[in-house]
Design goal:
Layout: H1 4-16, E1 20-29, E2 35-37, E3 49-52, E4 55-57, E5 61-64, E6 69-72, E7 81-89, H2 94-104, H3 106-110, E8 117-119, E9 126-128, H4 136-150, E10 156-158, E11 163-165, H5 172-187, H6 194-200
Antiparallel strand pairs: 1-7, 2-6, 3-4, 3-7, 5-6, 8-9, 10-11
């Protein structure tokens, strides 16, 4: 099974134009502390590589996304040269995107969607309350709602059958409601509660 959060996050970043930069590079000289703060705020943790005196470390280090610090537990000597390379994003960290995805799932209940979504305990996949995985189409839907939730004034989504464009007069709630109503046309097989649809209009 594919990693759904990774897939949804990639779609969200594409919609928000949060581009991956591949030239993150920090150099340090070890002077007693094995903790090194990365200079870029939003690194992609999966791309982090640590070199000690030019030798790639396959183990002996960890990355804390909350503090943006790489900690090296491997044995080091004073004046060892540490090089850390990584890719990074312009706007949002991996954990921020995951938090936004999780908070966006509540909109599906609010608008009477036929499934109730939640993240698994590891926060790597989206499930429904009965344990059924969402379809790839639903992952696209979650990505769109998440993108609007993050940056409602800069979103523009246009396909043959689906359009959501931010306008100054439209609030985040307006845009999410508009998107939810268009999903019924876009996919054709979605089932929303008629009572809730009338309340939203």
């Amino acid at each position: 099974m594919y990693n759904q959060i990774s897939t949804i996050a990639r779609l969200v970043r594409a919609l928000l134009k949060d581009r991956l930069q591949i030239d993150g590079r920090d150099t340090y000289i070890f002077q007693g502390s094995g903790s090194f703060t990365l200079t870029e705020d939003y690194p992609s943790s999966a791309t982090i590589k640590v070199y000690k005196n030019g030798t790639l470390l396959s183990t002996g280090y960890s990355y804390n996304a909350s503090t943006n610090i790489v900690t090296i537990s491997a044995i080091m000597a004073t004046n060892d040269i540490i090089l850390i390379t990584y890719s990074f994003y312009d706007k949002y960290s991996d954990s921020e995107i995951t938090d936004y995805i999780e908070s966006s799932l509540c909109y599906f209940n609010q608008y009477g969607y036929r499934k109730t979504f939640k993240l698994n305990d590891a926060r790597t996949d989206v499930l429904t309350i009965d344990g059924t995985n969402p379809t790839i189409k639903e992952c696209y839907e979650i990505a769109i709602i998440t993108s609007i939730n993050i940056d409602p004034q800069n979103i523009e989504i246009r396909t043959k059958d689906f359009t959501v464009t931010a306008m100054e007069k439209e609030s985040k709630s307006d845009l999410i409601g508009k998107a939810m109503m268009q999903f019924t046309t876009w996919y054709g097989d979605f089932e929303f509660s008629e009572d809730l649809r009338q309340d939203v209009n």
